[in-house]
Amino acid sequence: MIFEPIFRCKCKKSKTNRMILDGGTKGNYTIELCSTCYNNHNKKFLISEEIISKSNISLSQNQNQVIL
After folding, report:
1. How many alpha carbons fall within 13 Å on the CB side of residue 3?
2. Most buried among 32, 39, 59, 63, using CB within 10 Å?
3. Range(s) of the domain holding residue 59
4. CA gap 33, 7 in Å, rounded
5. Would residue 1 count as lying in a domain?
């Protein structure tokens, strides 16, 4: 199984949105953003997105994580 890297905004606010974006030849990557950063983020290469709830926060805790 191949895991995509997860990037997060540096804001201290809770992350509300998870987006999977097309990274071209480097492969897909995932971003978790607070509501402010989500509204300001370019969604041009968006593949899929989801609302983060308390039940699916633990899904990302077992994958590689990088803070933006």
Report:
1. 11
2. 32
3. 6-67
4. 9
5. no
The per-residue pLDDT for range 19-59, each reduced to its tens digit, is: 999 999 988 999 999 999 999 998 999 999 999 986 655 44
Quote the tokens at residue 44: 């041009």
- Count of C-beta atoms within a 10 Å radius of residue 6: 19
Domains of the chain: total: 1
| Structure token digits, residue 21 | 């974006």
Residues 9 and 68 sit within 8 Å (Cβ to Cβ): yes
Type of residue at 33: L
Which pLDDT belongs to residue 64? Answer: 47
H or E element in which residue 30 lies: strand 29-33
All residues at 6 or more sequence positions from 16 whose CB lies less than 8 Å from its CB, including other chains: 33, 34, 35, 38, 51, 52
